[in-house]
Design goal:
The chain is α/β, with parallel strands linked by helices and 431 residues long. The chain has helices at 4-14, 65-75, 97-107, 119-129, 131-143, 221-233, 250-277, 281-287, 292-295, 307-318, 326-329, 334-344, 348-361, 365-378, 383-399, 403-415, 427-430; strands spanning 29-33, 36-39, 45-49, 54-57, 81-85, 113-116, 160-161, 166-170, 173-180, 187-192, 197-201, 238-241, 247-248. The structure holds zinc ion.
Length: 431
């Protein structure tokens, strides 16, 4: 097995492949550079070694935080942890801090500070209020609706909220902690000038940025781009991302940060320009494009989120939910609309479904699925229509690239009584 540094080099030069997902977990804990350690996992842990004490960035998820703790203590049995930083409050990053607090109590050390953006508290409150919803949407997103697990709610809250750029000494190393908005409204990223290292959190994750996520709250493309450009000014040699291996080398770091910033910025600029001209969302979705040079970057592939969803999120941020089609302001129910359309067409439900299958054969998936939805909504108890609609979504999932889309389409197939053929590309990674 290659070392983490060798793997990081291979990923940068060759890019992810169909059997090498950018978020592949090595499950190792290795030194990247002097004083910079990294636990490669579904979401990564970074560790800064300051000589006499340690800084833990993103202790983990419920299914891996214990392993990461043991890996750290296998290498550094006696060094106290000065602080634990949450780069944001997503569940793959923010669990496991209690292990470090308990350990400090047992050893008579100072309890580690828990550093996070103040907005993480509102996030945790929201997660508690919408636990059922979050179980359902995460099951759809990651596992194609295969199972609904329990949504954990016992968070370790920050002991110190970082709302302005802040310096923290970790032994002999100074760490600069910066609040940001991007994938979330509660992001922190770290710069360690002495070690020429930046911990990006999920502001860089080796894929098209997760700025569009269809089932989640608002994301902030423009602020995100600005944070990446700010990082780029710092001339770092290493970035430790929230997901995927480290990037090592100044030119590589610059390319990763600047290209991702440009990707977000062009989507935001084009969308706002068209919004200012007064056109509806539908027009914007058909006109905004990402430049080919950015689409070619192996670390900007739409394997998790997609540019189309990012445009919708920019529209939502600067506009609202109304898409500019007047009938959609107060639309008929889906059922009423479907019944009316089916009534207009001889043998309506079957005719729509047959046309949907024909369109699918021509890879006109958008039209095909829309017609299948209308057929289904006209009579949601009809088993034959359910199965045909489920098959269609299962087939469509095979040609889609992003986790979001594959997950939602496979979950629809399951809801129609079809076991989807293709599994989400990275559900296997997550387990
Ligand atoms: Zn993450």
């Amino acid at each position: 097995m290659p070392t983490l540094v060798e793997y990081a080099d291979q990923m940068w030069t060759e890019g992810p492949t169909s059997d090498r997902h950018p978020w592949r977990a090595l499950n190792t804990f290795e030194e990247v550079s002097n004083g910079v350690w990294f636990a490669s996992s579904f979401a990564n842990l970074s560790l800064i070694h300051g000589g006499t004490e340690l800084l833990v960035v993103d202790p983990g998820a419920t299914n891996n935080a214990e392993r990461k703790f043991d890996q750290i203590r296998g290498i550094f049995p006696n060094l106290p942890v000065k602080a634990v930083v949450f780069t944001h409050g997503h569940h793959d990053h923010c669990f496991g801090a209690e292990r470090y607090i308990n350990e400090a109590n047992e050893n008579g050390w100072n309890s580690p500070e828990i550093l996070a953006h103040p907005a993480i508290n509102q996030r945790f409150n929201r997660y508690a209020k919408t636990a059922g919803f979050n179980e359902v949407i995460n099951s759809r997103q990651f596992r194609g609706g295969a199972s609904v697990g329990s949504w954990k709610k016992d968070y370790v809250r920050p002991t110190r909220e970082i709302s302005d750029p802040t310096e923290l000494d970790v032994g002999s190393v100074t760490v600069q902690i910066n609040p940001a908005r991007g994938e979330t409204d509660d992001a922190l990223w770290l710069h360690i000038p002495d070690l020429e290292t930046i911990c990006t959190g999920d502001l860089f994750v080796w894929t098209a940025p997760n700025a569009g996520n269809p089932q989640k709250v608002q994301r902030y493309s423009g602020d995100w781009a600005n944070s990446l450009l700010h990082m780029n000014e710092l001339n770092a040699r290493i970035i430790l991302p929230g997901h995927g291996p480290p990037i090592i080398g100044k030119e590589r770091v610059r390319d990763a940060l600047v290209s991702t910033a440009e990707y977000l910025q062009t989507l935001e600029d084009q969308t706002i320009q068209l919004m200012n001209s007064g056109v509806p969302l539908d027009t914007i979705l058909s006109e905004v494009t990402v430049p080919e040079t950015l689409l070619q970057k192996h670390f900007l592939q739409p394997v998790y989120d997609e540019p189309e969803f990012i445009i919708r999120n920019i529209w939502r941020l600067y506009g609202g939910w109304y898409d500019g089609q007047p009938a959609n302001l107060k639309p008929p129910s889906e059922a009423n609309m479907a019944v009316e359309l089916v009534r207009l067409i001889p043998n309506g439900k079957e005719a729509l479904m047959e046309r949907a299958v024909e369109l699918a054969a021509q890879e006109e998936w958008r039209l095909a699925c829309k017609l299948a939805d209308i057929a289904f909504n006209s009579d949601p108890t009809d088993k034959e229509t359910m199965l045909r609609r489920g098959m269609l979504y299962s087939e469509r999932a095979k040609v889609e690239t992003s986790t979001m889309t594959v997950g939602i389409f496979n979950s629809t197939a399951r809801e129609m009584g079809i076991l989807p053929d293709s599994d989400n590309t990275f559900s296997a990674q997550e387990k």
